[in-house]
């Protein structure tokens, strides 16, 4: 990052994880020390307790701790019996891990466009169902809960497994319920910068099905239901570390407060930016957006990003290349123009600084610099 002009030394970080960790001492250190004291480093006591606590938080019957959000998606697909020859539908405007999990199980990803706001379009997704479709993965992108009632009904009628990618939406609510309980399973990531973050890689899958729970527990641990008898294949290692669960147990009770803090910052951005020629994120019903990211849209995105950078403000682009134009997915045979909404969003989206501890004065400063950009040009 370039340094800000001397007259204005403000630096605004896009995300800062240090303050949150500081606010949780000595609890974090104590929780990690307790793992050293027990020596149960893998799938230990804290994993079991965190699984129970996270399932209860989401209103799901079961939660299975794994080593990443990617693995949670992968194991959900495997537990649903998805494999080679099957198609899995998802959207073109997601993080590549959604499609990576489909490829990992040997299935064929099929992409559809999002709606003009970037949300899942249930009708379009359902229209892509074919005789080979075995699963669909809608994504609660940026923390905004998608309403999946229609898609879930369409999937159920065709015997298609609906798996929710909730990796960016911990705690968001749809019709009063937490995201992740509409489909047969949902995946969450605890990558450190997510709304609930571990001290490294971790993830979890939730489900109401005892059968999926049992299969996933076995699949994450080399197919083992009884020691050294490997029932479920392929034999993989997707286990959660106990230290990560210990950290997550300290953080989970804070999640709703952090999400409220994100919503407060989003509200402030909105009130300060509302009259500018800039598209603000759809907010949806109260509580349905937990603002993993606060993403605005303008055709002048690159210049706006440059202007903010020159004033010491970090921003992000989520994501600059839609999946159908990613080099490693060229085999899918797509070209520019296939998914106009996803392509426009990739060209025009800019993520402004957002994290629960982001000082409100910094939100005001960012908004003032965005206003300055549009006033000057
Ligand atoms: C972060 C993320 C994932 C993957 O999570 P990891 O824990 O990094 O493997 C999957 N899907 C979406 C939408 C994500 O944001």
Give an overview in words.
α3 crosses α9 and α10 packs parallel to α13. The protein is 38% helix and 14% strand. The strands form four sheets. Strands 1-9-8-5-4-2-3 form a seven-stranded mixed sheet, sandwiched between helices. Strands 6-7 form a two-stranded antiparallel sheet. Strands 10-11 form a two-stranded antiparallel ribbon. With 377 residues, it is an alpha/beta fold. β10 and β11 form a beta hairpin. The model is unreliable at 1-7 (pLDDT under 50). The chain has 13 helices and 13 strands. The structure holds pyridoxal-5'-phosphate (PLP). Residues 68-70, 94-95, 97-98, 139, 165, 167-168, 189, 191, 201, 203 line the site of pyridoxal-5'-phosphate.
């Amino acid at each position: 990052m370039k340094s800000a002009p001397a007259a204005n030394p403000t630096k605004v970080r896009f995300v800062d994880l240090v303050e949150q960790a500081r606010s949780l001492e000595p609890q974090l250190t104590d929780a990690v020390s307790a793992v050293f004291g027990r020596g149960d480093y893998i799938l230990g006591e804290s994993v079991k307790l965190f699984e129970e606590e996270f399932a209860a938080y989401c209103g799901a019957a079961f939660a299975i701790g794994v080593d990443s959000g990617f693995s949670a998606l992968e194991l959900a697909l495997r537990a649903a019996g998805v494999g080679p020859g099957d198609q899995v539908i998802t959207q073109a405007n997601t993080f590549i891990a959604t499609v990576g999990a489909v490829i990992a199980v040997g299935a064929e990803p099929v992409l559809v466009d999002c709606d003009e706001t970037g949300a899942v379009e249930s009708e379009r997704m359902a229209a892509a169902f074919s005789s080979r479709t075995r699963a669909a993965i809608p994504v609660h992108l940026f923390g905004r809960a998608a309403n999946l009632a229609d898609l879930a009904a369409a999937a159920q009628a065709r015997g298609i497994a609906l798996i929710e990618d909730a990796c960016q939406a911990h705690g968001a609510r749809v019709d009063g319920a937490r995201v992740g309980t509409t489909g047969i399973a949902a995946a969450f990531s605890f990558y450190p910068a997510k709304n609930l973050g571990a001290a490294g890689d971790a993830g979890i899958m939730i489900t109401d099905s005892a059968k999926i729970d049992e299969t996933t527990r076995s699949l994450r641990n080399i197919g083992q239901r009884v020691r050294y008898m490997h029932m479920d294949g392929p034999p993989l290692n997707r286990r959660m570390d106990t230290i990560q669960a210990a950290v997550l147990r300290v953080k989970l009770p804070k999640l709703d407060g952090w999400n409220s803090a994100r919503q407060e910052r989003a509200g402030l951005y909105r009130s300060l930016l509302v009259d500018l020629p800039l598209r603000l994120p759809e907010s949806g019903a109260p509580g349905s957006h937990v603002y993993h990211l606060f993403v605005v849209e303008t055709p002048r995105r690159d210049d706006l990003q440059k202007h903010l950078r020159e004033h010491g403000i970090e921003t992000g682009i989520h994501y600059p290349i839609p999946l159908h134009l990613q080099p490693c997915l060229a085999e899918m045979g797509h070209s520019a123009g296939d998914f106009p909404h996803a392509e426009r969003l990739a060209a025009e989206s800019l993520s402004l600084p957002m994290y629960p501890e982001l000082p409100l004065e910094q939100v005001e400063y960012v908004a003032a610099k965005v206003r300055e950009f549009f006033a000057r040009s």
